[in-house]
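Why do we bother with holo predictions? Because pocket geometry can differ from the apo form. Keep that in mind while you read this record for uridine-5'-diphosphate.
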Amino acid sequence: MGSETRQLHVFFFPLMAQGHMIPTTDIAKLFAFRGVKATIVTTPLNVPLFSKTIQRAKDLGIEIHAQIIKFPAEAGLPEGCENLHAANSQDINSKFFTATAMLQQPLEQLLQEHRPDCIVADMFFPWATDSAAKFGIPRLVFHGTCLFSLCTSETMRLYEPQKNVSSDTEPFVIPHLPDQIKLTRMQLPGFAREINVESDFGNLIVRAIESELKSFGVIVNSFYELEPAYADHYRNVLGRKAWHIGPVSLCNKDTEDKAGRGKKASIDEHECLKWLDSKQPNSVVYVCFGSTSEFPASQLHEIAMGLEASGQQFIWVVRKGKTEDAEEEWLPEGFEERMKGKGFIIRGWAPQLLILDHQAVGGFVTHCGWNSTLEGVSAGLPMVTWPVFAEQFYNEKLVTQILRIGVGVGAQQWARMVGDSVKREAIEKAVKRMMVGEEAEEMRSRAKELGKMARRAVEQGGSSWSDLNGLIEELRLHGSSSKQGNNIWH
Ligand code: UDP
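The structure, written out:
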């Protein structure tokens, strides 16, 4: 059979966390729409996170398959904890990552049974490169972040500029990048800050990098025009093989697709749209901190006061965390009554894409998780950046310093899950800067331009469209040349 006609089969194996599963599901969908057989591998409790997408694709005649592997019970996690979202303490979090290493054997069992042509496995499964090699197939890595952050973290690893400062608050410059980027040690994850300290998570990251270097390449949810200097730097200076195929969220075209990503929304999406329909264009601020970050009651209180003082209309997503279980002591007295018609709180999960894409929304207060950031860019929105953990402090630099479509709220301290404390005055000021005045207009017009570029990138002939075609073609060629060789996997 010729390379043009043979159906390629790709396994997608995301980390069990919304910020990884949501874009990987979109990527699987993009592959399936190009005629590739796409199979998502996950554990039982994570299937509902993408089953609606599978059903919607099926209605359009596109098959996306699911393969289920058992979550390792021996990891000692609480019942029902199969997603990082539920791992809400340091101890459970670290057990969760230990558990993921136990997925190697069941994954290899599936590779043995189904013999796909390629596996796209999350960066947090470093062993997947060896698993793929056992079956003679390429392994692609998906990190879930942008090229700027990939370049930044790799450069930090190579040159360790954080060693050259004497305190956690003294800024250092990251060398050899296309722009002059300054950070402080406070903005780095613990394993990168405490440079001589060995940690399980630090070791996992080291193994992830080693396995990436041995892999077939990297899939990036970004587009060339957004960060051309870093796309070139990653390939030409850091020597990585990468395909940028995003923004992948743009494959969700209608209301149902946009509302059905990840979890079921905690509000009726039509009610939410009706509320937004009643508002003027660019008049509502959307506030959301992703699927994992949690704020203590005192910080939620400051956010409420800051939003009220800003005088702006808003939709604010408050994740239900352990602090809110009993009473909502964070809610200022009479807040919801005073804000009636002006703002509302979504407790739980919001239909984020639907909200961001509505013309009434004019700004996004974000924790700078890469999916949210890129969804904001795609919607042409200026942002208030409030990084919390992971690589979010890097993403903030891209938004505020390079793209110049956002203002920082002033978060200074990297903190796993519980964000830095920011005062109401700073929140009020940043929200006003994003929404009113000349600076706001300039940011909005740059953001709108980027939004248009994002759409062009995924259209036929666009940069991401072409990169995805190139990748699929390369995988086909790789598959047929391996087959003509010693037929190692059949
Ligand atoms: N999201 C959503 N509703 C919510 C919170 C998050 O749909 O209430 C989606 C959001 O659109 C994004 C993903 O969840 O696609 C979060 O990923 P991100 O990288 O922004 O942050 P993380 O959750 O990984 O910190």
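The longest helix spans residues 463-484.
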